Automatic annotation (TrEMBL):
This is Antibiotic biosynthesis monooxygenase. Keywords: Membrane, Monooxygenase, Oxidoreductase, Transmembrane, Transmembrane helix. GO terms for molecular function: monooxygenase activity. Residues 3-79 form the ABM domain. InterPro entries: ABM_dom (IPR007138), ABM_predict (IPR038762), Dimeric_a/b-barrel (IPR011008). The keyword Transmembrane helix applies. It comes from the Bacteria.
Amino acid sequence: MSIHVAITRRVRAGCEAEFQQALREFFSTSFAHSGVMGASLLVPPPGSDAREYGILRTFRNEEERDAFYDSPMFKTWDERARTMTEGEPVYRRLDGLEAWFRSPGPPPPRWKMALLTWLAVWPVSMIVSALLAPLFGQLVPKFIFAGVVAGGIVIVLTWAAMPLLVRIARPWLHGSRPQPDKPGDR
């Protein structure tokens, strides 16, 4: 099961461009670590005075995550990043529905995540079932057909429906956001 981690760093005034370039270089290097499955950078909106940058990382599992953060490669990056940032980075592990709604700050309220997920699952389940019924409906037992439909739903939700809905609903999901949690899971 993959592990998602949201990291928030406050970049020193005047170091924003240098930090972004250094982080892009580190992203390229970090993919040499076998357990790193993804990384993204979230920047403040253009024209904003905010200096909070978000880094989203996905690891194959907890062991790979821990090995990455204990590696000399990460420790070298962390030392370099500290010259361009203020305070300690904040690490948050994202679990369950939070992984779809991952962001550097706190996740939206669970009821909003559940409602948006339901809004995606309902039509996707109807569409996937209708599309697959002519192909598999009469050829396989019902429980296998149900598994094929469930797999189709998961694929559509993961790579299409949820990323699109989360992007569209971001202002509603997050509203005015409180400050990120204190350092915890990494």
